[in-house]
Specification:
alpha/beta, six-stranded parallel β-sheet, six-stranded antiparallel β-sheet
């Protein structure tokens, strides 16, 4: 089967977007009517209200059949119906449909046609998409994709480093969709205790477990009629991934401790800063779930790769602060610092730096004196590349780090440098995590106790575990 998802990103931008769709029409039976295009990867057919194709034919079972897009092709599957599903004279359990063809459920004939659409991506003329701004080619190509995708029901996977604005993009998709008047519910897969994830996602009944003193709807039920944003998707425990896959395919949830299935009408937008393809190859993420979620995959470039957007982004942040101020911009010296800073926290870090600098600015322009210590110590020029044939080199330095002198032994110098790096890394990590140890541990890819021990060793924070 041809690749059905194209990634729009800063590394290897592709110029086409492949949208997965099917066209179905009832051509014989009481519900005969015009063809309709379906964007969901699972199309349910039956006499029960709530099916994608709801038939009044009394020879059709409540849940009769479904059309499922798989990695191998588009599959027609009978769901144990009374009168069967037929392709020609043959009663089938499941069969790949391939190109256009007809099939029969009860006394109803349905015509199937693949309707995938390949769209050439041309950079949008807009420099913003809702709350996301940028004039770089990468961002305007992203806007072009979002403009087309937002108004569909397609599932979207947003990838990118921490702080690149994945939640902003997800909210923008919701705001431009037909679900804009419905709820937008955020669920951070990495911020909930492992043993509570299932309950938070799908809900629970009273007495389902210790502490379940009342029945509670999960986030999928809360998002009914709207959009659910699954943040940090790569943190979802693999034992819960089949349950999420079932919800995406069946659009029904079952609360913990309940037998009843509850229908949900939800669009899913997911985000991760991890390489899910790599996690799939390592057995840490289900391939079928990745396929269901990455119907459209968009990648957000890091801030350091889109410096032409810097002025626009700064103006947007300064104009959208949670408090009044008179700051209008930044000095030329600050701009040079920003252009050479590595921005490990991306847009989130830039916003925090600007908000912190505003109260320390005397006039309408942020000067270098208002910046945090690490940025004030940063060089104003890019670090030059080292020529292997250069005989004399200046001592390399960086914000928070410096090479030990040559009077030390190799081991002593290495240990001192590692100690300096570790302290700088931890301070920067805590700042990016907003002082939250659990989040810091997730960002660093280590457990919480390890982070706590390292902080205690360096005397940073309280170091409590």
């Amino acid at each position: 089967m041809a690749e059905t998802t194209n990634v729009i990103g800063d590394q290897e931008p592709r110029k086409q977007l492949h949208l997965r769709r099917v066209r179905l029409a009832v051509v014989e039976g009481p519900d005969k009517g015009p063809a309709k295009v379906y964007e969901a990867d699972v199309v349910r057919i039956g006499s029960r209200e709530g099916n994608d194709i709801h038939l009044t034919d009394d020879t059709v079972s409540r849940n009769h059949a479904e059309i499922v897009r798989t990695e191998q092709g588009i599959l027609l599957r009978d769901l144990g119906s009374t009168n069967g599903t037929f392709v020609g004279p043959v009663r089938i359990k499941e069969v790949f449909l391939g190109d256009a063809r007809r099939f029969k459920v009860g006394n109803t004939q349905i015509e199937f046609q693949p309707a995938d659409e390949v769209i050439d991506i041309v950079a949008s003329g807009a420099t913003r998409f809702e709350g996301v701004v940028g004039r770089s080619v990468a961002m305007r190509e992203l806007f072009s994709v979002l403009e087309r995708v937002a108004k569909t029901e397609l599932t979207v996977l947003v990838t990118g480093e921490t702080g690149t604005g994945k939640e902003l993009v997800s909210r923008a998709i919701h705001q431009r969709s037909n679900r804009r008047n419905g709820p937008f519910i955020v669920f951070d897969c990495g911020a909930v205790a492992r043993n509570l994830v299932e309950s938070e996602l799908f809900g629970h009944e009273k007495g389902a477990f210790t502490g379940a003193v009342a029945a509670r709807a999960g986030v999928f039920e809360q998002a009914d009629g709207g959009t659910i944003f699954l943040d940090e998707l790569g943190e979802l425990p693999i034992e819960l991934q089949p349950a999420l896959l079932r919800v995406l395919e069946q659009r029904e949830v079952r609360r913990v401790g309940d037998r009843k299935m509850r229908p949900v009408n939800v669009r899913v937008v997911a985000a991760t800063n991890r390489d899910l393809k790599e996690q799939v190859s390592e057995g840490l993420f289900r391939q079928d779930l990745y396929y269901r979620l990455a119907v459209v995959e968009v990648h957000l470039p890091p801030l350091r790769a889109r410096m032409e957007d810097l002025d626009l982004v700064i103006a947007h942040i300064l104009g959208d602060t949670p408090f009044p101020h008179g700051v209008k911009g930044i000095s030329t010296e600050v701009r040079r610092v920003f252009e050479t800073w590595h921005w490990p926290g991306n847009l989130r870090e830039l916003r925090n730096v600007l908000l912190r600098a505003i109260p320390f600015s005397d006039g309408s322009i942020i000067t270098k004196d208002a910046l945090p210590d690490a940025l004030r110590a940063a060089p104003n020029e890019p670090v030059p590349e080292i020529d292997a044939h250069t005989e004399e080199l200046d001592e390399p330095t960086g914000p928070g780090l410096s090479l030990p002198g040559a009077d030390k032994s190799f081991k002593e110098a290495k240990d001192a440098l590692l100690e300096s790096f570790e302290r700088y890394y931890l301070e920067d990590l805590l700042r990016r995590a907003g002082g939250n140890l659990s989040k810091a541990a997730r960002l660093a890819g280590v457990d919480r106790k390890t982070i706590a021990r390292m902080l205690k060793r360096h005397g940073i924070g309280d170091g409590e575990e």
